[in-house]
Structure formats: C-alpha cells, structure tokens
Amino acid sequence: MKMWLSAISLAVGLLAPGLSQAQQTLTFGGSDAVGTVIDRTNAMFAKLVNERAAGKVKVNFIQGEQLGSDVQVIEQMMKGSVAMYGDVLDWYANWVKDFAVLAWGFTFRDNDHFQKFIESQTFARMAEDLRAKQGLRILAAAPTQPRILFAKKPVNSPADLDGVKMRVPEIKTYLNLWQTLGTKPARVAWAEVFLGLKTGVIDAAEGPVGSAYAQKFHQAAKYVMRTDHLMSSQHITINDKVYQSLPEDVRKIMVDAAREAIAWGRKAAEAETEEVVRKMAAEGATVVTVNRAPFADKAISAVNGMEKDGAWPVGLYQQIRAIQ
Asked: Count of CB atoms within 10 A of residue 217's CB?
C-alpha cells in the first residue's frame, strides 16, 4: 500500500498523506520551447531547489508542451496535479481580468518600466487576487524578451496589417489588440505555427524573440518586424496549498531560488535579444525596424473601449503608464 501511495504522489506531484517529506516530488510544468530563456530559467530554478532542499523536496521539471498548452498546465496547477508552472503572466487573464492589461500592446515603455510595475503595489494586488481567487502564488516575476512580429510581407505601418491572417494566442486581449491593428486573428497552437506559416494557413505570427527563433518562425515568414509591441514577462508560480504544505525552510528555498532564477532570466533575455535578431538576419530573414508610434497610437486609441467593455478595471492602463 505504501509503495502504491508513493507512486501516486510522484505521478501527481503532491505529497500523499502519511509519506515522509523525503519522498515529496513536485511536478513543474512549462510550455516554452526547449532551449529558450524561459525554459532555461525554469531548469535553473529546479536545479537550485533540488540542490538546496536535497532530501526534503524534489522538483521534476517537465519541458516543452509535454503536459499540454499553457492553459491546460495552469488548469492542472489549479487542481493540484501539477504543483508549479513557469511562463508568461498574460495567461492568468483567463481567470483574473486585471492581467489582461499585460497583453495589450504598448502598455510598457521598456523592461525597466515593467520591472517597476512588478515591484509596485498595483502588481502586488493583482498577485494577491490570483492567490485568493485561484489558489496560485507567484513566487517571482520579471520582464523578459519583447514580442515581435513575423510576416510573409514587410509591415511598416498598421495599414500593412489590414486583413492579414495572423496567429494570436488564446487570450482575449491579444485577439482584441490584433483586431484593432487590422488583422484577422487565427487560433493556431504554438507548436503548429511554423507549419501554419509554411502552408499558408496563416500569413503572420508574433512572439518572444527567443521562443520564435527556436520555433524557426523566421524561416517560414522571412520578414521580421521589431515592433516590440509587448514587453513580455516571465514568472514561476506554485499551487498555494502545495506551498503552504511545505516546511518553512523549504518555502524560503523555493522563493529565493525563484527570485534568483528569474533575475538571471531577465539578464539572459536582454543579452540574447539582439544576438538572436542578428542570427535571424544571417539565416535569411529581413529585419525591419518600424516606427512604433503609429502602431502605438492605434492600440492606445482602443483602450477606453476595452475598459468600458470590462477587459480590465477602468484606469488600470493609465495607472501602469504613470509608474516612473
């Protein structure tokens, strides 16, 4: 019976009643492509915890989309079958609408602005809502690589996006943003974007620099636009019941390891962004430096309408923009 319970504990990533802490394994899910900055940050976090909490807890990091899409992994984390998850904060907009503002283009001026937001009371309140309403505790978060645009034709202005079939993540705010910019959003799984671009199912896609490079978007859509429309994020989150079940010293190890790994991830992301863009160009892509102002103006013009429709609380966008 004890062996059977141990097997169940390992499978679901939670500690079964009656088992010693030495047998506790926590499943950590991520959906980013193997080798990207987010994937490597997650791996670093798991390594740090396993080294520092040896004999008390083990983090089993499952790379790529082996556990499913981001939404599926988050749902598993809510249920407790996955203990932790690491990717971008935007996905939480499916459950706490305040996070939707992070998926709206041109909300942040740069990574420093984003970091100040992470350290603000505004973000602290959003994180507490996520914990209180969905049982998910954010251990650490920081900005990472910006999201850029890939297309089969050059895009120099919003007019060039009119009617373009574009892959957009299954986040309502993303859909609304790219509709505002003139595209016809299409829902295609991240792992299928390259094939979608190759076969003409879609004409364009967007994503974080490193992740998109790993998926070879630039080989299927040769025009790479430095829109930097989103200052993207990275985080490590844990099921709060799992967190509360851990001994106090292990909880501290988890928080410290998450902060250390996420801080490393930000530095690595910033260092690699320009390098990856150069690699794309060397491999045949045409890199287009766009004037962001017309795109920003079009996106910002729709903010009032988004707030009136309840996409996020009224005034939240301006509150974030005002952070200095």
From this structure: 27
Domain ranges of the chain: 2-313
Q: What angle do CA 233, 209, 45 make, to 5 degrees?
A: 50
Contact 164, 187 (CB under 8 A): no
Tell me the pLDDT band of 19, cut-offs 50, 70 and 90: very low
| Residue ranges with strand state E in 189-278 | 204-208, 223-239
Residues in the chain: 324
Tokens of 257: 């390891």
Q: What angle do CA 303, 307, 312 make, to 5 degrees?
A: 110
What does pTM read for this prediction?
A: 0.80
pLDDT digits 0-9 by tens, 98-148: 999 998 988 998 899 999 999 999 999 999 999 999 999 999 999 998 999
- Residues 135 and 148: their CA atoms lie apart, in Å, by 32
The tally of CA atoms less than 13 A away on the side-chain side of residue 47 is 8
- CATH number belonging to domain 2-313: 3.40.190.170
Phi, psi of 288 (to 5 degrees): -110, 120
